[in-house]
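Practice problem 4.
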């Protein structure tokens, strides 16, 4: 039995240090699965990694003008602490970008150590222990970890696989109660690659207004869209609603290691003043985000965007190879991703997804992530595939998935 939350047992002359109860539910499937993959790799097996959403690992690179801006900042000795909310030129660039996307009534912009910190500060400033936040299922597991640390309840609402993974508004409405503080929308979605329609966003905004909820809109993949698709920023259609929009440089600008993200608080000034000050308190307490890297924000948002077109051309080819490969595997179906670089195929057999993924890694070296790590409707089984790798790797992974399913589970 786990020692979490129990009295410390004695070991020799000392008691075991018992971890906090809040850590019990913290899991991060994307990296947890590497424990198995590392064990298999040590055996000498050739590995096919399709589990980490890091474009730099697969030959994608950031625009040169961004790197040059950071180098200049470092040479100019911008290596000390930054202002807690971010350097003025970066904050101003984010605000201009938000206004260009149709976001009005911006009350606060803050620069953070990755989009993850922006989300954590926003939730920590909003949610009390025992209150709840509606989170999409499937969805990014960061929200699970943050809410566990806060002692708040994660209340999953389901995305509808039969409707292209769009949020199910009726399901959302049924889960709201008097302790619900916020609703999370990940658009484009990780892990499904779905892009939310304008009408569905409008329906979610109507719900938020009716129940006085803050909308947490995670839009980190907003520029990575397939087939000429468009992205609608939640706050742009949310007149009168309280919205926090999250974005950053990691994905679209190919610098996840810079750890530069931001939050944009928009909505009625009178209703958000105290909340914005609470976020500022937390910013000041952690001092600042990375300083020199903030000088990449303005050139990224306002400079040439050619790399995105080139990136999407490569990703489109890789997505299409993946979809073709999955379509040829009996017992697998997959909604075609409209954005980001993830797909969330469904397994139609009875084998639990965690067991299938473990077999896949051990038997073939192909590394994907079990769908249970992102949430899924009970009774369904999925896995997440990252299609950043080259076409040969993706096709090899599809072949590995097919062979593993054909072999089936070992008897006993």
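Answer key:
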């Amino acid at each position: 039995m786990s020692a979490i939350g129990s009295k410390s047992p004695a070991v020799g002359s000392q008691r075991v240090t018992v971890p906090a109860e809040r850590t019990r539910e913290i899991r991060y499937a994307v990296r947890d699965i590497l424990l198995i993959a590392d064990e298999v790799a040590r055996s000498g097996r050739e590995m096919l990694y399709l589990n980490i959403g890091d474009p730099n690992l697969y030959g994608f690179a950031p625009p040169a003008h961004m790197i040059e801006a950071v180098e200049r900042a470092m040479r100019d000795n911008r290596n000390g602490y930054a202002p807690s909310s971010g350097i003025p030129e970066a904050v101003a660039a984010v605000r201009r970008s938000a206004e260009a996307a149709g976001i009005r009534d911006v009350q606060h912009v803050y620069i953070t150590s990755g989009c993850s910190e922006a989300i954590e500060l926003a939730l920590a400033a909003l949610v009390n222990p025992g209150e709840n936040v509606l989170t999409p299922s499937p969805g990014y597991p960061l929200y699970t970890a943050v809410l566990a640390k806060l002692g708040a309840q994660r209340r999953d609402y389901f995305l509808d696989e039969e409707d292209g993974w769009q949020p199910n508004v009726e399901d959302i409405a049924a889960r709201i109660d008097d302790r619900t503080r916020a609703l999370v929308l990940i658009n484009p979605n990780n892990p499904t690659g779905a892009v939310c329609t304008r009408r569905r966003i409008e329906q979610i905004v109507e719900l938020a207004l009716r129940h006085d909820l803050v909308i947490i809109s995670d839009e980190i993949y907003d520029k990575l869209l397939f087939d000429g698709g468009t992205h609608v920023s939640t706050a742009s259609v949310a007149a009168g609603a309280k919205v926090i929009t999250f974005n950053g440089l990691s994905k679209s600008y190919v610098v996840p290691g810079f750890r530069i993200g931001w939050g944009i608080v928009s909505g009625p000034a009178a209703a958000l003043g105290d909340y914005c000050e609470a976020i500022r308190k937390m910013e000041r307490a952690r001092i600042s985000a990375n300083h020199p890297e903030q000088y990449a924000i303005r050139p990224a948002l306002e400079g040439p965007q050619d790399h995105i077109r080139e990136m999407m051309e490569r990703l489109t080819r890789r997505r299409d190879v993946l979809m073709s490969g999955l379509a040829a595997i009996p017992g697998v179906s997959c909604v075609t991703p409209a954005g980001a670089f993830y797909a969330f195929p469904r397994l139609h057999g009875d084998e639990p997804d965690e067991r299938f993924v473990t077999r896949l890694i051990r038997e073939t070296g192909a590394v994907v992530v079990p769908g249970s790590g992102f949430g899924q409707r009970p009774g369904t089984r999925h896995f997440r595939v990252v299609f950043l790798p080259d076409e040969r790797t993706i096709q090899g992974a599809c072949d590995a998935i097919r062979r593993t399913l054909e072999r089936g589970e070992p008897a006993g």
